[in-house]
Amino acid sequence: MNRISRREIRFFYDYGDAMNIFPKGIFNKYFFSLISSAFLLFLVVPANFQPAFAGGFQVAKYAGEFMAIGVGGRALGMGGAYVALANDVTAGYWNPAGLARITYPEISLMHDEQFGSLVNYDYAAVAFPYGKNQQTDSTTMNQDGESSKQIEYNAASFGVSIFRLGIDGIPDTRSAWNDINGDGIFNDGPDIRPDYSQITFFNAADWAVYFTYAKQHSENLYWGANLKLIRRTIGDFYATGIGFDVGGLYAASENLMLGANIQDVTTTLVAWSTGTNELISPTVKVGGAYSFQFLGGRFAPAVDVDIRFEDRKYSAMAHVGPVSFDPHGGVEYEFKHIAALRVGMNDIGNLTLGAGVHLPKLDIDYAFAKFNGADQLGNSHRISLRLVIEEEKYRRDAE
After folding, report:
1. Which pTM does this prediction carry?
2. 324 inside domain
């Protein structure tokens, strides 16, 4: 057990909870062998969605873990300490308030393979700036007695992010074994062999779609919110959920940024077609980042703390009663907006490394995450692209 990381433990817990909705025998050693379908499934409310509410509710520890993996090579290379640095299209995930800081439309893509390419994780997002700040006819007086025009802050942004985690081609062997006695127990013996022609395959897939709105409130304060739709499928069984995130970002000084993101702020309901209802508890992410010039480039150390309320005594770095704390941090060195190097420690205590290259209108970022059980499940390599449509006609303040 000491060779398996907390992220791996959370992954197995997550799918372990889902396994309980299946008849015994459907899962075997082939279970982890992901995902297909269209996110349009989110837009159709299942016919038997309402009856699912009649069942009991349970706070499902790790039920939302697939939404805690993170996105973007830049952020993940810094150990996921990005809640205060978020200023691009990936802010829709890390801190929706940061999306208000974009100047041009942006598109981002990422692919990640985990556990020896067993699990695929994919991400795509697009964001658009909307509105601009304008001076008004009113004036204000500062402490030095100088007057200046008041500014009406109308800068806002919209974004859509899509996440997918899953496993494809999982063998279902229930019909491949003989039940001679009809007692529901598969017959065993040295001469018993499965009928391979009766083996079918299914997928286990988790989808999430985030709709983000962000706005600048004042010179130093930004706020934002997410509406997120969740769809989980395992074979013929499925779940649908809806949740909300709210975030804030504050520029304490020219170099110091402070941020907070409350994920699943109202507690997110995930209703299974079996009648089981799961509740995802809120997660509070708080952090700070400080930027300064050094060695001809820019250094940006950042520290975040993830606070959860799921009684994670054994998978968290620290806890007080049912409240757990997972600190993580990282640092980025960017040289003249040409290239960047990153290092960090993520929320499960593992080393992360990263690098990025800035091309005209395109950023290419790579992140590496080391798992303690690398010899069994492999490390994680993530590649992300960020396209900035940097044309004057699309600029936020363009007339």
Report:
1. 0.79
2. no
